[in-house]
Amino acid sequence: MIGCGLFLSATAPAALAHDSLKSSSPARNATVSGVQTIELEYSSRVRFPLVVLRTAAGKTIQLGEPQADGPKVRTAVPTQLAGGPYVIAWRVVSSDGHPIEGEIPFTVKGAATGATASATEAAPAAPATSAESTRPAAAAQGGGGIPGWLWGGLAALVVAGLAVWLLARRTSGPSGPDSPDGPAGQPTTPAEQPDVPAGP
């Protein structure tokens, strides 16, 4: 009896203990170059997995649907993670029907952050170069010389003056002693001849 009681008392805590997380990828406090899949392995079969990935600022990163396969849970990370600290928050229902949860902090190397910063710094340089290249063209177009509208005005004045001169010349017409018309503009008539009497 005593031996049986001791056996039951020794095995009871183990039977009542909940399942626990054995390992994870990425591991706790690990530094990785990138994450494409989060994998969690528990001490026994689990159900109803929930996995959330957050940045240090609390922003949630979209993940794929977590899949439970016996004691393992996998979920895809479809987006490339920038450099910095992250936290995996998980929650499952253990084999004894009780929910368990936890968090796994890790860090992504800052290579992606450096590349993004370099690209951001290089982007504003292009408009500055374009602005400098357009300044000589603008100076050549507007600097020195007579503006186009002034040339247009002068041409209009010349055309108007020429039209007035031609109209005045056509209205006055030629006049003088060689003109077929008289001084007053009346046509000349031949001098009247005296009547000559007819012969006897």
What would you say about this model in short?
With 200 residues, the protein is an alpha+beta fold.
Topology record:
Blueprint: H1 2-16, E1 21-25, E2 30-32, E3 37-42, E4 47-55, E5 60-61, E6 67-69, E7 72-76, E8 84-93, E9 99-108, H2 111-122, H3 125-142, H4 148-172
Parallel strand pairs: 2-9
Antiparallel strand pairs: 1-3, 3-7, 4-5, 4-8, 6-7, 8-9
List keywords for this structure.
200 residues, five-stranded mixed β-sheet, rod-shaped, single chain, alpha+beta, 4 helices
Characterize the structure shown.
The protein has 200 residues and is of the alpha+beta class. It contains four helices and nine strands. It has helices spanning 2-16, 111-122, 125-142, 148-172; strands at residues 21-25, 30-32, 37-42, 47-55, 60-61, 67-69, 72-76, 84-93, 99-108. The strands form two sheets. Strands 2-9-8-4-5 form a five-stranded mixed sheet, with no helix packed on it. A four-stranded antiparallel sheet has the order 1-3-7-6, with no helix packed on it. Strand 6 (67-69) and strand 7 form a beta hairpin.
How many strands appear in the DSSP assignment? 9
Low-confidence stretches: 1-15, 112-123, 128-134, 136-140, 176-194
Widest sheet: strand ordering: 2-9-8-4-5
Based on Cα principal axes, name the global outline. rod-shaped
Given helix and strand content, the structural type is alpha+beta
Strand content: 25-35%
Q: Bin the helical content.
A: 25-40%
Sheet with the most strands?
5 strands, mixed
The helix tally amounts to: 4
The rounded Rg comes to: 53 Å
